[in-house]
Amino acid sequence: MTVLHLWLRHEVRSTERRTPIVPSDARRLVESGVTLTVEESPQRIFPVEEYEAAGCRIAPAGSWVSAPVDAVILGLKELPDEPAELTHRHIYFGHAYKQQPGAGDLLWRFAAGRGRLLDLEYLVDDNGRRLAAFGFWAGYLGAALAVLQHRGKLVAPLTPTSKEELDALLQPAAGEAEFTALVTGALGRSGRGARLALLTAGVEATPWDLAETRDLDREALLAHDVMVNAVLATTPVPPFLREQDLDDPARRLRTLCDVTVDVGSPLNVLPIYDRTTEWTDPVRRLRKEPPLDLIAIDNLPSLLPRESSTDFSSALLPQLMEFETGGPWGRCVDRFRQACRELGIAEGKLRNV
Ligand SMILES: NC(=O)c1ccc[n+]([C@@H]2O[C@H](COP(=O)([O-])OP(=O)(O)OC[C@H]3O[C@@H](n4cnc5c(N)ncnc54)[C@H](O)[C@@H]3O)[C@@H](O)[C@H]2O)c1
Description:
Protein name: Saccharopine dehydrogenase
Oligomer: single chain
Bound molecules: nicotinamide-adenine-dinucleotide
Number of helices: 11
GO molecular function: saccharopine dehydrogenase (NAD+, L-lysine-forming) activity
Active site: 77 (proton acceptor), 95 (proton donor)
Distance between the termini: 14 Å
Family: Belongs to the AlaDH/PNT family.
């Protein structure tokens, strides 16, 4: 049996402090016989010394390009533009199967080098459910930002923080005005995170999931002060909010955080805005009188890098322990092949191990 060689790479995006494997889980991989090389990375939330102490080999940032060809390169976000030919197997979020900008170029780079993308978004169990995802902390952050904005306490630009710091800000001050909140997609990962953050802020949210939105009661929706949307839409449903709802004189809704951020998608349940908001400028006013503020940030978990990495790593660890061609990883390979075929890349060009 060949020994698995994992290579944890440095993330090229300078604001990305998260990592898919934290030092305590790195130790467990090493103890199970995996060879684990970890690249130095100035911004990673865990110092490289912690990986070294866990028995990992240390390598310079970006050195994966010359890693042994059988090494499996592990990361989270985009690869650098070079090299043109990708020779390794890469585990990360490639965002390459839904005709995203640059998706075709990326798949051709894999074909040119006979490498392979094992996309974390498609690492699923037998029922198609994601095995490792950042949803919980996305929801927690989204709801926390909504609370802070609603209470007039949100400070921009946003910067990565810790749960302790965030929770301290969420504690209601004496005499703080009470408000009501609605979480849609309440039973999912993000929805559960959102409800917990709201509880920390002293608010028990109204939880709506599929059953409660089947026969949508927009009047009831608009009667909440704060809404956090965390649905994962897979089939089109009537929008939760339309332009005309924002002008409803009975609207109590003042603060909306869209964790889902399906802007531009036919599945979007909130087609009332057309671009995301950013860490530098997290809030956009959609209506002046009465006000309605929107938060729609698509990289929320990066604001809690330690907690979100730890959570993600604990879900990924058992999958890495059973890294093999079948099961969930086999499904990742099948999805990669399908995407390549759709692009017209000949089967013979793809690595067949
Ligand atoms: N903004 C960010 O930074 C960020 C980060 C991670 C995930 N996300 C997004 O958050 C969304 C939720 O992710 P998740 O991991 O929580 O998914 P999930 O599958 O764990 O949960 C989604 C929930 O939505 C519910 N749902 C689906 N359609 C619904 C409808 N019409 N009405 C009510 N409920 C409905 C489902 O029943 C489920 O409970 C996804 O779109 C994901 O891409 C955003």
